[in-house]
Structures are given as C-alpha cells and as structure tokens.
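Deliverable D2.4 — example input (structure tokens):
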C-alpha cells in the first residue's frame, strides 16, 4: 500500500504531480518499467474503480523506487493507494521526440505539440511563427539608443559613443530555450525573434545580461560574447504521466573556452481539464574560477526570461508575501486572448522556495508582453562555483481563463512545495 499525506487537500484539489517513494516487489517493478503499473485509490469502505497511471521516476539504488502520479481529487487527509499491474501498458500520453525536419526536441500530448525545446541553433529563417509563416522578415530599429546602446558599448568598449549601431546586432542565431509553448487550445503563447529592438528575445530562456569572467564582460542574454552550446548529452523520457527533456549545454566564451556547464531539465505532465504543469530546473556549474552572473546593471532584468506572444486584453499580475510570512509564497500570471484562441488563457510562474535569494523580484514590461522572476538579488553578482552547482527551480502552469483566484494560486504554490521535486545536480 502507498500512503500520501494530503493534509490540506491541495494536491488533490489542484491535481498536482506527486513523487512517492515505495517498495515494489519484482513483479510490480517490472510492470512499472513496462508502463503497466497503476494505482487504485482505497477509501474506508472500498477501492475506487478508476486505475490511475503511475510512472517510474527512479528505480532507486536501494530497495525502494519512486513513482509519479497526478493526484486525483478526494479530500484532505491521508490518501491510500494500492499498486496494481495492468495487463497492457498505459497509453503513452506524453511523448518526447526529435523533429525530423528541424532536429529540435518536441513534447507532445496525445499527438498534439505542447512545446519545442530548441537544443540546436535556430536561425532567422527557422523561426516558428503564427501560421508557420517564416517568410516575414524581421524589422530592425535603424539606430540603437538608450539602454540597449549602453549594453552594446559595455561589451564593445572599442566603439566610440557616436557610433551608429542597429538593433540587428542582437539578431544572433541562438539555442537552449523553449519556443513555441502552446496553450490548451493550441494557441501559441511565446514569441521568438520579435520585430524592432529586441530580436534576441526568445520564448522562455534562462540567461543573464551580465556574465563576468575574470575582468571581462559578456552577455548571454543579448547573445554577445558568451553563448550556450549543446554538447549532445541529452536524455528523453516519455510515459503516461510526464515527458522529460534532460539536456546539457556549455557556456562558451567567444566560442573558444567553456566556462560553465549547464543542465536544463524540462518536465511536462499530462494536462487536466483546465491546466498543464511544467517543472523547469536549471543547474549551473562553473568550469573556471571567477565567473559571476547578474541582472542588467545588477538592478533590472535577468534570470528566467519569458517573452510572450502578442495578445488582446493583456493582464499581468504578480504576488509576493511579506518577508516574515510562513509560508512565503511568490507567483506571477500573464494572461490574455492569444491569436488562435477564442477565450482567455495564460501562464503562471511559481518560484521554488529553495532557490537562492528567494523570492526573486518580479519585473514586468507590459509593452513587451513580459513578466519574470529575477535572479540574483538586486545589487549583487552571484558567483558560480566549481565545486557545487547553482540550482534554480520553477513551476510553469499553462491555464485556461484569466488570472486565477488568490486561493487557487496559493494552493498551487503549496502543492508545488508539498512533494519533493528532483534537484538534478551534477
């Protein structure tokens, strides 16, 4: 028997993913490895008839294994389940595969694309846009000025300040990001290579405008000097409960020297009637001493970056509890009517409380369809370590409708923290 303590009922009410340690005999372990293991809910009176798919997360180094399930509704308190062999494997609802045309990695649910992880280099002609129209050429600002011009001069001090620079300097082929991400009605939520002055914006990406290596400066955010490059070390997991991409990249300094090893893990769970949960883990290990990361000017944007698609009726909201609150919750929501959808939908971001400098400040740029949790703290530069990696975790929730009610958002945050999520350290 497997017992899950849903003391406040938040796991069942939000249909959250749960990872549970359990001892399985040989037959049940084989069934789990073959995708044939299910769970029957046990009440005080009887067993529920519906068999819940369970996915083997880790067979463990000892006697126990870890199973992942989507928690069914059933009230607060101790929930009991009995592992059962199914005669045949459950349908592989969540599937990871390589796109034969682009070479990129896609995750599908029941044959419909959920997201694409761009592990290989994306050029302007490869950009996925609404209606797959790749013939639209990006328009660049003729003359750079203001903050972006200052950014460029910081990385190119040899240029005099009266230099005329176009925003095309940021139209650099890129990789290691999520785009497109789709809503539950098939609407495209994210934007890549947007027009005008921000061609380096790229869907959902994790990058910092200020990367210091010794006395030199680079900008992995705006694609200057330092870039994330794939190593080919990538793993895929498909199954009835979730699909996962586990990818390694190296941060290359001027394409010559590897300074950081990055491990990005994207886990997408099968959707419920009104939302889909995505867990994102970023792991950074310095390969050289004196590598630091910071937000722009140490007081602005950087970290987990989200450039959303143009939408109607845009609403941006974010929340952070008072500093002395227990628990101290932090989430944001971006919603509107996206092209291709008839109703409102959105993307919620939950910060994990174990992230260093938690909670990160929320930064919004409504004119850019943008809201993000920043890292590290304002006024600081975070040193990456060669012995112990930095781990940042976030939960993304694609949902129907507008901004969720506060009590629902609280329960989603509580559910995220009620069950362990993998650290994925090196």
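Example output (designed residues):
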């Amino acid at each position: 028997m497997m017992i899950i303590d849903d003391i406040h009922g938040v796991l069942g009410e939000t249909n959250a993913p749960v990872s549970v340690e359990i001892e399985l005999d040989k037959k049940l372990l084989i069934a789990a490895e073959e995708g044939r293991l299910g769970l029957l809910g046990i009440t005080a009176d009887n067993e529920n008839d519906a068999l819940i798919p369970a996915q083997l997360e880790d067979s463990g180094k000892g006697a126990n294994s870890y199973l992942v399930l989507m928690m069914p509704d059933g009230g607060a308190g101790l929930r009991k389940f009995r592992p059962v062999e199914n005669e045949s494997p459950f349908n592989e609802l969540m599937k990871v595969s390589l796109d034969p045309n682009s070479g990129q990695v896609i995750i599908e649910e029941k044959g419909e694309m959920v997201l694409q992880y761009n592990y290989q280099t994306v050029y302007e002609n490869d950009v996925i846009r609404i209606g797959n129209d790749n013939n639209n050429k990006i328009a660049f600002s003729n003359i750079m000025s203001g903050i972006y011009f200052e950014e460029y001069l910081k990385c190119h001090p040899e240029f005099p300040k009266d230099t005329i620079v176009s925003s095309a300097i940021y139209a650099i082929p890129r990789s290691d990001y999520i785009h497109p991400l789709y809503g539950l009605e098939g609407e495209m939520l994210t934007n890549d290579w947007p027009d005008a002055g921000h061609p380096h914006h790229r869907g959902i990406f994790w990058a910092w405008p200020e990367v210091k290596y010794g006395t030199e400066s680079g900008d992995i955010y705006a694609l200057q000097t330092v870039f994330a490059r794939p190593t080919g070390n990538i793993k895929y997991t498909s199954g009835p409960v979730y699909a996962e991409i586990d990818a390694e990249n190296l941060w290359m300094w001027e394409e010559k020297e590897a300074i950081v090893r990055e491990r990005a893990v994207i886990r997408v769970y099968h959707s419920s009637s009104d939302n889909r949960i995505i867990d994102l883990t970023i792991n950074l290990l310095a390969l050289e001493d004196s590598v630091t990361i910071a937000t722009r000017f140490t007081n602005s944007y950087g970290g987990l970056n989200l450039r959303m698609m143009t939408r109607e009726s845009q609403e941006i909201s974010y929340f952070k509890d008072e500093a002395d609150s227990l628990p101290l919750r932090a989430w944001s929501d971006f919603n509107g009517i996206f092209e291709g959808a008839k109703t409102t939908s959105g993307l919620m971001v939950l910060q994990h409380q174990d992230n260093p400098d938690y909670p990160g400040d929320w930064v919004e740029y409504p004119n850019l369809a943008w809201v993000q949790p920043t890292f590290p703290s304002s006024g600081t530069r975070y040193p990456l370590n060669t012995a112990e990696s930095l781990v940042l975790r976030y939960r993304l929730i694609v949902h129907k409708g507008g901004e969720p009610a506060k009590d629902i958002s609280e329960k989603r945050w509580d559910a995220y923290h009620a069950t362990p999520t993998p650290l994925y350290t090196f």
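The two ends are 33 Å apart (CA to CA).
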